[in-house]
Amino acid sequence: MKFLNNILHWASGMGRVFRNELRLILGDVGVMLFFFALPLAYPVVYTLIYNPEVVRKLPVAVVDHSMTVASRDFVRHASASPSIEIFAYCPNMADAKELMASGDVYGIMEIPDDYSKCLGRGEQAHVSFFADMSLLLRYRTFMAALTDLQLELTSSITGERIDATGLESLAGGSSGMPIASQSNFLGDTEQGFASFVIPGIVILIIQQSMILGICLIGGTSRERRRSHGGLDPRETTGAGPLATVWGKALAVCVLYIPLTIYVMRFIPEMFNLPHYGRPVDYMLFIFPMLLATSFLGQSLVYFMKERESAFIIIVFTSVIFLFLSGLTWPRYAMNSLWYWLGNCVPAVWGVEGFIRINSNAATLPETGISFHALWILTAVYMLTAWWVTAALKIRKD
Fold first, then answer.
1. Assign residue 363 a region: left if phi > 0, alpha if psi is -120 to 50, beta otherwise?
2. DSSP per position, 190-244
3. Where do the H-state alpha helices sit in the chain?
């Protein structure tokens, strides 16, 4: 009976903390901006910035030293690509470089004078391409277009050489390469930048906005404690550290569940981004990330001396978490220090699991490693938040 009374007392304290935390959040304009305005606006802004997703019709200058039918056929095939637009023919490289320096073109295609002769002798012909590297997205587009062009012309020229030998019947009537190449891009069929990066960015936005809001509340509480002899008059009394930690975490998670549905479900639908997974799978998956992030935020409150500390300590970590997530550089290629540091960040596992569910239609069991890692982080950060809350209750700021 005593055990049951303790449980009821603990639940009652958690409920009072829950209600008080909601009042603190909804009564603080700064926290409301972090908890609501940031998750609502940032995904839209990011997605609009990255639209259109792919680069088309990039202007290219051509320097044709060969001036033959074969070289003109090469340029004709290049201009047929949706990614390349022939801007000008230049008599020499100096004129082409001037066009690139002025920003009129982003690439130069130089065809040597022996291009047609090499093809006629059955030798390998070379075409040089010079790309502006100021934007890697343009370079990636050029490389994809030129690779497709190379495969297409190789198939055509190989077929012509086979026909010229009189072996058409032995080749089964084939006039191309014996093996066809076809690319199938899973999860990002458009090969667009927004489709690639936004599913991960929205998870990072959820984490950062939640931590910023929690730290803002914590810093404000520390200021009130200094003004009232070490006690916060707006803090719930009669609730233990564990009940306080769980009450605050549940209050934040309740507010973030509809926001999470918005950024994980409606943003991909609004902008036609990949969204192949089942909502029930990624909502069940993301719940431990919300808990772990809430506990992490409560743990970081220890370092919040005043309200502004949230901006000084937390904001700069956004870029660090972006790199640790593996969106810009694969995690398996990181050294052990950064890899294990990334393992301590809830959003890193959240990004990995959500992309699998959202872009590749994985089920919850298929994200087992990430899902279990999030629950482990939830337990670890719950303990650190419990310790911080207990320490602050007896500490005189």
1. beta
2. T--HHHHHHHHHHHHHHHHHHHHHHHHHHHHHHHHHHHTTT--TTSPSS--HHHH
3. 2-26, 29-32, 38-49, 69-79, 93-101, 115-120, 136-164, 193-227, 241-261, 267-270, 279-300, 309-314, 317-324, 336-343, 346-360, 368-393
* CA nearest to 206, candidates 250, 268, 248, 258: 258
Q: What is d(CA 218, CA 392) in angstroms, rounded to the nearest whole number?
A: 10
- Judge whether 247 and 15 are in contact, CB under 8 Å: yes
Q: What is the pLDDT of residues 229-240, one digit of tens each?
A: 777 777 887 788
- Please give the Cα distance from 87 to 57 (Å, whole number): 10
Instruction: Find out whether the peptide bond into 52 is cis, omega within 30 degrees of 0.
Output: yes
3-state secondary structure of 352: helix
Alpha-carbon distances, residue 290 vs 154, 204, 210 (angstroms): 53, 11, 9
Give phi and psi for 121, each to the nearest 5. Answer: -90, 0
Close Cβ partners of 290 (under 8 Å, ≥ 6 residues apart) = 206, 210, 252, 253, 256, 257, 260
Which pLDDT value is given to residue 396? 53
Q: What is the pLDDT of residues 332-350, one digit of tens each?
A: 889 999 999 999 999 999 9
Dist. CA 331–CA 84, nearest whole Å? 33
How far is the CA of 159 from the CAs of 123, 171, 173, 175, 256, in angstroms?
15, 10, 10, 4, 60
pLDDT of the residue at 254: 94
Intervals of the chain under pLDDT 50: 169-175
- Please, what is the Cα angle at 268 between 267 and 269, to 5 degrees? 90
Phi, psi of 59 (to 5 degrees): -70, 135
In sequence order, the 6+-apart residues with CB closer than 8 A to the CB of 91 are 63
Closest CA to 378 of 257, 245, 281: 245
* Phi, psi at 256, each rounded to 5°: -85, -15
Torsion of CA 252, 253, 259, 260, to 10 degrees: 140
Q: What is the CA radius of gyration of the chain?
A: 29
